[in-house]
C-alpha cells in the first residue's frame, strides 16, 4: 500500500508574510515521522527575500 503525498501551500498555511503560522513546523514534523510524502507549493507572485 502506498503512502499518500500531501501538497501543502506555503503562503497562508505555513507562513503569513514573514511569520511562521503556529503549528506549521509541527505538522511537517508529524508527516516526516509517519513517512508521509509532501510537497511544498505556492501560487504567490512575490519574490522571496
From TrEMBL:
Protein name: STAS domain-containing protein
Naturally occurring in which organism (per UniProt): marine metagenome
Signal peptide: none
Pfam families in UniProt: Hydrolase_6 (PF13344)
